[in-house]
Amino acid sequence: MNSLKKLLKNLAHGGTIVGLIVAIIIPFLIYLGPNVGHKSTIQMLDLKLPMPLFLVQLAAGIALLVMLHKDLRDWLKSILPAKPYCIAILVFTAAITIFAGTQIEARHRVQSDESIFLSVAQNMFYNQESGTCNQGYFENGSLNCIAKSNSFKTKGLAFLYLIGMPFLGTDLHWIFNMELAMLPLAILLMFLAVVAWTRQPLLAFFASLLMALQPTVLFQFRAMSVEPLYIFLSALALLVFKWTYDRNTIKHWAILALVLAFFAQTRQETVFCFAPFILFALPKLLDSKSAKCPTFFVILSVFSTPVLLTISYFQGFGFQGGEFSAHGHFLEDLVKNWQEMTLPLKENGELTNPFLTYFNYLFAVGGIYLLCRAVWDSVKGSGESRYFYLKMLAFLLLYHIQTYMILENVSGDFGIQINQRYSLVMIPSMAFVAAQPIAHLIQALANSLSDKKPSPVTLIAIMILVALGFTGWTFHYKADFNNNIMYNRNHLTVEEHSILEWLGELPKKPRMFIYGRPWHFVGYGISSIHYDRARNLSSEDMQKLIDRYQGEVYYIRGLDCWDSKTYHKKAVEHRIPTTCDVFEREMEMDGIKNILITNNYWVQIAKFNGRKNYNTQKIIDVQEPKLTEAQPAEKNLNEVDENTDVNKVVTDTLSISYSLKESSEAIANWELIITLNNKIMIRKPYQFGEFQQVTSTEALQPGFNQFRFIVNDTSKQKKLADKVINYMNKEGGAIPLTELNYESHQQGWGNLHFNTSIEGKKMTVDGQNYDSGLGTHSPSQTTYDVGGKYSLFRTTVGLDDESLCSDGVFVEIEGDGKVLNSTPVFTNGTAHTLTVRIEGVQKLTLKSTPKGSKDCTHVDFVNAVLIP
Questions:
Q1: Residue 632, pLDDT above cutoff 70
Q2: Which of 504, 562, 655, 822 is least crowded, fewest Cβ atoms below 10 Å from its Cβ?
Q3: Which of 800, 770, 768, 778 minimizes the C-alpha distance to 704?
Q4: H or E segment and range at residue 529
Q5: Are 82 and 456 in contact (CB under 8 A)?
Q6: What is the mean pLDDT of the chain?
């Protein structure tokens, strides 16, 4: 009671009160601003204020560290444990760092989020603004941001990139090495922090080791995510807190405030970590009437302004709510995340997610142990150690208010792969809790092996053996790390990696990209604009742009262009396929690179040549064919194709109407080609008007016939249009295979589809659509009882364009168990037509076999027909 009165008395000190009022007013006014009509002021401050504040914060921190460096050195010497522990943590830290650096490829975790930090860093470096440069041109040593926005990401990581840019380069590829360098520092800082607070080196060793051995942690330290910085700064903050707590001077509290304020710049939720630091610091801050308390709180408040401005400006911004249903799922996400972190291995022994199941169960056991120790010592303990575990438990609970905020207010469901990074906010604490029973069991085991005081050698030996077991368990998943199981499931990450890999093959020169997420390239120091901005440029400005970059302007069609659907209700994605389709229709481009990302889409890179001087939608329009009974025909259109004398038609005819509506100057070098079953019927210059292609049915083959209307630009050797019309000629009794019932069928996955692909979509092979056929999944075998009634079977076969990742398939046509015809092994982008004589055949079998894996083997048998 006397202690509480003393604290309150010291709190009533005039300077302390003024300092606390100032410290409270700053966040209050910042948060109030947008609610009283000053959102634009907060927006401006969020853009302009962070960088100078960071620079002052850095300078102040360096100055204080210089003044206190001898004190820090002496204090560190006082907390260091025995040499064997120090040597052990150094050796294991080195081993883990080498493993991560050699076994995990340096790549982004998720392209869109993390590239924002790069873009902000570029804007800070060139324009002294802390917003995202969404679109911009790099010219003459400057960055012209033609579209910028306030960044909803905190600015701390971007500022670290800024510090390195004058020395390491502005292309920012060095950031991956910076992230890796933080790994050993984070491990060692956590070890020292736990030692300093608990004086239990065994506990500190295993807490640091368990944290570092989690696959998701190692993956993140090889990416450029903000979460590794979070781990590093959280350990640093705990260590500096203990140093400050022990020394208890104004300078120490000032440097702690600076560290905590920068720690808050890692994630918006990190400000909630202040609660346990403040609560546990108060007894020391108010142990006398001094400037310690106001100094600490004012510095903390002032230098937390960048994150406070970000939170204030984006308050109520529902980018992760609304239609995405990302908010309000705390308990649901908690349960889901536990399930995701404890999933069993796949059948091939691969990790399902980058988590080790044992770690989570050790944490659960450690949590129960910690709770029991806290209760037991509070009741039975005495002296300073009585409430040690209770205080530890209270600190952890208050510290993880931030975890509640993440799971409640962000789409924190680990079932969404990119959200698994949030686990790094929790893993250091989980490792500390999990290490409790391990450390105490090892101590107990060492005690049991000796009648007297246990030998330090015995204790260290057991510690090393257990540590080797944990380390070996992580390292034996080497294949999972090599295969980047965390990155390769993220399509945007693979997309960016593939683009940068392609870019690395080219000579270095100024380039310009037109892309759906242009800030990604801006972040790497490459000029980039959005599709919409490029479309809004005049033809003259487009040509100036092409000339400025000497033809090095590229259009990239990526993930956003392929599908408008978001597949998880809590995911935050915006797709723009229509925008891309319109852009491609209007612009002149030459495709130069296709990169398969997944079975659903390609990254397509094309050299941009400016706006087309013609309308692709007007090039040609083809109507469905019409069958006309034999009679003289009259010429009643602008023109009838010259090789058809319609006045002499005496047989049934098939007429196909088509329109050529483009009339620009571009058509001077165009030609029209019409083919029937791959044989040229018409080849003539392109001419404006409406026409008919009239074909005698005698020219048609029994079964399916394919008419193609192709428009080429002969000057550029480029196909401009390719329209296909399939017509079923039933003359002579020809019948589509789909009109017969099959006798037996089996396939590798799913069910047989008629007239649609295996996924129920329109059958599309090599870019051509088909209305008739079988959609199956290889390996497959479909048998028909044809009863010897037919003389010929014909079909076109290929892999459907809906799934692009097949290793290859080959097809055989069997008659009564004998192979009658077959294709070579084929992959997507090819179609093979098979014609088979089947006189006397009773059982006709269509058989497909995958070359390798059956994944993505969506085989279509199209235009399949039986001919008597």
A1: no
A2: 504
A3: 770
A4: strand 527-529
A5: yes
A6: 90
* CA distance to 374, 721, 773, per residue, from 701 (Å): 88, 25, 18
pLDDT tens for residues 127-165? 999 999 999 999 889 999 999 999 989 999 999 999 999
Buried b (16+ CB within 10 A) or exposed e, 145-171: bebbebbbbbbbbbbbbbebbeeeebe
pLDDT tens figures, 258-276: 999 999 999 988 999 999 9
Question: Which residues, in sequence order, are bridge partners of residue 138?
Answer: 143
Q: Provide, rounded to the nearest whole percent, the portion of the chain with pLDDT above 70.
A: 94
**Torsion angle, alpha carbons of 283, 288, 289, 292, to 10:** -60
Compute CA 102 distance to the chain's CA centroid, rounded to the nearest angstrom.
22
Cβ 280 vs Cβ 413: under 8 Å: no
Token readout for 193 is 């922090």
Angle between helices 401-409 and 330-341 (to 10 degrees): 100
Gap between the Cα atoms of 847 and 467, Å rounded: 55
Q: Is pLDDT of 649 > 50?
A: no
- What b-and-e string marks burial along 30-48, b requiring 16 or more CB atoms within 10 Å of the CB? beebbeeebeeebbebbbe
- Token digits of residue 503: 């870019």
Alpha-carbon span 80 to 87, nearest angstrom: 11
- Beta 843-850 vs 753-754: how paired, if at all? unpaired
For residue 24, the surrounding DSSP H or E stretch is helix 14-32
Please name the helix (run of DSSP H) or strand (run of DSSP E) that holds residue 714, with its range, or none. Answer: none
List b or e across 606-638, with b for residues whose CB sees 16 or more CB atoms inside 10 angstroms.
bbbbbbbebeeeebbebeebeeeeeeebeeeee
DSSP β-bridge partners for residue 602: 596
Closest by alpha carbon to 424, among 229, 206, 276? 229
Rounded distance between C-alpha atoms, residue 345 and residue 794, angstroms: 46
Average pLDDT of the segment spanning 330-346: 91
Strand partners, 700: none
* Nearest-10 crossing angle of helices 14-32, 2-11: 70
Positive or negative: CA dihedral 93, 95, 98, 100 = negative
Tokens of 584: 């491609």
- Which two tokens mark 597? 């990302």
Q: Give 540's contacts (C-beta < 8 A, 6+ positions apart).
A: none
Distance of alpha carbon 620 from alpha carbon 671, whole angstroms: 12
pTM of the model: 0.85
DSSP 466-508: HHHHHHHHHHTTHHHHHTTTTTTT-HHHHHHHHHHHHHHTSPP
Q: Contact at 8 Å (CB) between 413 and 320?
A: no
Residue 142 pairs in a beta bridge with 139
DSSP letter at 817 equals: T
Q: Hey, what are 296's tokens?
A: 């600490």
pLDDT band at 117 (very low <50, low <70, confident <90, very high): very high
